[in-house]
From TrEMBL:
Classification via InterPro entries: Amidase (IPR000120), Amidase_CS (IPR020556), Amidase_dom (IPR023631), AS_sf (IPR036928), GatA (IPR004412)
Protein biosynthesis is among the record's keywords: yes
Record bears the keyword Protein biosynthesis: yes
Self-association state and partner proteins as the record states: Heterotrimer of A, B and C subunits.
GO molecular function: ATP binding; glutaminyl-tRNA synthase (glutamine-hydrolyzing) activity; transferase activity
Record-annotated Amidase domain positions: 33-490
Protein name in UniProt: Glutamyl-tRNA(Gln) amidotransferase subunit A
Lineage, broadest ranks: Bacteria, Pseudomonadati, Pseudomonadota, Betaproteobacteria, Burkholderiales
Length: 510
């Protein structure tokens, strides 16, 4: 069997869906070819667990629906899940030794909703351990490699998801974004990814890192494929206390995002060649400082000019607390991680040390053996800032700054612009191991994405060019919207992708 998946012959989920419904190929054929490719392409280290029997069973179920004319919207479409979503059958490890071999008795809501929509899972994807990282170098099972350059990182923490999509192993993949972990790997791998408004997608069954920040989002090659996953993924879930019942007065349910997307596209089509006429694009001065690489700045500037050619208007804005988003995030997120990861104690599930003298030593040894260096570093930081005498000075103060950062975004949207655009990362993908001597250096790469997560806003990354001192590597454009504007963001990105081809470039074909 060929190691090139059959689905790569189709440019979008919509075209592949049409072929499946016309019975030009079967879901089983698609799944088998994707499995073959995923098992053959071990150089990326993108997959952590593949179970052909489970995958083919889902494909056979999709074929039955297709044969009966009762196909769900994603019936037969091959996807894969980041290894922080619990799954029945497939192992769920969060890329950590402490959960090695763990199999959940239930599916995460994101997983079950996509399965109900007919999607066929090829397996579980590698990531930074417990989603803590910006380069996918923190996995207990080795780093994922960027399909454009195997010596470079794919970005993190959803690096396995972005790499699998960029390499054509799956049509789309799920990811999670706590401080930029969907947008950043999408940017560095030359694909598209979106983080929706916090609370619009259920966190039930998603292994927690920072509970007030974590949000699931899809990664795919282009905006319309993101819509195909994000719409059925979204919706209220009573099992998740952070899940929203309504979104600006509209029920949080599948169909909301698609309706907004369709309305925006209809308005764009009516405007003709100036499809985005009147759209005010806010460009923060703080995103274009001395820390931004010249090649990234040039690619983003070219993208902004394209948007202007479509009728949009550029507006200079200021987000003065941008640099403070780094210390704010790296107080709040580790504090929440310290609390969330306290459940891994060697008592109920997960790794347990082989030798210990008492309960306290069992817990200590189990955690020391099971957690990686970056996870332990963040647990220690989080425990410190939550401790007596430091809570007010650090954690409480960080929450105050968080509110101020959110207010800066609110003011920009209410007074100056409709969307905000800028870079996703300060530079292109670094080489694996570049920051080994300074483990906190990767934290600085999140400067353009953290504020969005702290504010709970929707944002996405789309390919907009290439940079790099030697071999060309992808550059991503970040598009930030106001609360619950996911459909409009996707429509804006789709219009850009109709007149550019950056999202169609593939590794080895640049």
């Amino acid at each position: 069997m060929s190691s090139t998946p059959l689905h790569t012959e189709f440019g979008s989920i919509a075209s592949l869906r049409g072929a499946l419904r016309e019975r030009k190929l079967s879901a089983r054929e698609l799944a088998a070819s994707a499995l073959d490719a995923a098992q053959a392409d071990t150089s990326l280290n993108a997959f952590l667990h593949i179970d052909p029997e489970l995958t083919l069973a889902q494909a056979d179920a999709a074929d039955k629906l297709l044969a009966g004319g009762l196909a769900a919207p994603l019936a037969g479409i091959p996807i894969a899940h980041k290894d922080v979503f619990v799954t029945q059958g497939w192992r769920t490890t969060a890329a950590s030794k402490i959960l090695a071999g763990y199999v959940s008795p239930f599916d995460a809501t994101v997983v079950s909703r996509l399965q109900q929509a007919g999607a066929v899972s090829i397996g579980k994807l590698n990531c930074d351990e417990f989603a803590m990282g910006s380069g996918n170098e923190n996995s207990a099972f080795g780093p994922v490699r960027n399909p454009w350059d195997h010596s470079a990182v794919p970005g993190g923490s959803s690096g396995g998801s972005a790499a699998a999509v960029a390499a054509g192993l799956v049509m789309a993949a799920t990811g999670t974004d706590t401080g930029g972990s969907v947008r950043q790997p999408a940017a560095l791998c030359g694909v598209s990814g979106i983080k929706p408004t916090y609370g619009t997608v259920s966190r039930f069954g998603m292994i927690a890192y920072g509970s007030s920040l974590d949000q699931a989002g899809p990664i795919a090659r282009h905006a319309r494929d993101l819509l195909e996953l994000l719409d059925p993924m979204s919706g209220f879930d009573a099992r998740d206390s952070t899940s929203l019942e309504t979104c600006d007065g509209v029920d949080n349910a599948p169909g909301r995002i698609r309706a907004d997307f369709d309305a925006a596209v209809q308005a764009q089509d009516a405007a003709g060649a100036q499809a985005l006429k009147g759209l005010r694009i806010g460009v923060p001065a703080e995103f274009f400082n001395g820390g931004l690489a010249a090649d990234v700045a040039a690619a983003v500037e070219a993208a902004l000019l394209t948007f202007e050619s479509l009728g949009a208007v550029r507006v200079g804005i200021s987000l003065p607390l941008t640099e403070l988003s780094i210390p704010t995030y790296y107080v709040i997120a580790p504090a929440e991680a310290s609390s969330n990861l306290s459940r891994y104690d060697g008592v109920r599930y997960g790794h347990r040390a082989a030798q210990y003298r008492d309960l306290a030593e069992m817990t200590s040894r189990s955690r020391t053996e099971g957690f990686g260096a970056e996870v332990m570093r963040r647990i220690m930081v989080g425990t410190y800032v939550l401790s007596h005498g430091y809570y007010d000075a650090y954690y409480l103060q960080a929450q105050r700054v968080r509110r101020m950062i959110a207010n800066d975004f609110r003011q920009a949207f209410s007074q100056h612009c409709d969307v905000i655009m800028g870079p996703v990362t300060p530079g292109v993908a670094k080489h694996i191991g570049d920051n080994r001597e300074d483990p906190t250096a990767d934290w600085l790469a999140d400067v353009y994405t953290l504020g969005v997560s702290l504010a709970g806003l929707p944002a996405m990354s789309i390919p907009c060019g290439f940079g790099g001192p030697a071999r060309p590597l992808p550059v991503g454009l970040q598009i930030i919207g106001n609360y619950f504007n996911e459909g409009r963001l996707l429509a804006i990105a789709d219009r850009f992708q109709q007149v550019t081809d950056w999202h169609q470039r593939k590794p080895g074909q640049q």
